């Protein structure tokens, strides 16, 4: 038998690396992520995120107090955009007051429906990452709907909290205190999000490694956005206009989806390899 296949005597990093490799490239461990279809789900996350979060946050930005910045400024912070890139992002969105006047109860209801659908899509991705069967209506459709609504409220609250804190535009990551606070809030959101969507099927301790992995991945994406996406927005806007900016923003959403689902898969493998014993999926 190949030494990489050794069960108990293989070190944790070796076992972890083997299972990640098998999950991505296929093989005996394909059960870990073969059904996840990471890239396809990331593309779906980008489409649903743009369809749901962008209009929803524009409306919230318009309805917020005067001190709240517009959604374009929020998105610029998330992408660590330079001043020139931030200007291009702002061209994609209407001024907040105009959005507020144009908003109707029907559009708000439509946004709520899309938001709940978005939550259901994220839940399915988490279930695939953990190898779980789709949630049955053991707790009724109303219970599942409530989970999706709570998740959407968590996401909206997270964006509102982070985007209304003072940030230095010059630096990739702000002051040490601000950075620590933002990382902690992000970690708590990701940890709670998995628990809300997966319910009792996975325990809190089992979900913590995935939340940590996703947080680290998002920090890396923020740095990558500063170095790559920010200048790319400027060049794409010159070459293709607002469509070029939108394509870069969509690429960022794809990256967020990839890290979200990939982090959950990494967390599951870390949990199962760190606490072998009787391999419980739910920890």
Automatic annotation (TrEMBL):
Residue ranges of the TM segments: 43-64, 99-121, 141-161, 173-192, 204-221, 228-246, 252-271
Topological relation to the membrane, as annotated: Multi-pass membrane protein
Keywords: Cell membrane, Membrane, Transmembrane, Transmembrane helix
Originating organism: Streptomyces marianii
Record's protein name: YihY/virulence factor BrkB family protein
A GO cellular component entry from the record: plasma membrane
Primary site of residence: membrane
Localization per record: Cell membrane
InterPro entries reported for this sequence: Virul_fac_BrkB
